[in-house]
Amino acid sequence: MEEGKLTVRSVERALDILLCFTKNVDLGLTEIAGQIGLHKSTVHRLLATLEEKGFVTRDVATEKYRLGMRVWELSVHMSRSDDPAILLLPAMERLRDRLGETVSLYLLEGKERLRIQAVQSNQAIRRVAQVGARLPLFVGASSKVLVAFASLAQQEEILNDPEWSAIYDGDEYMEMLRKIQEKGYATSFEEREPGAAAIAVPIVNSQGVMTAALSLSGPVSRLSSETLEQYAPVLIETAREMGLMIP
Question: Is the full-model pTM beyond 0.85?
Answer without folding.
Answer: no
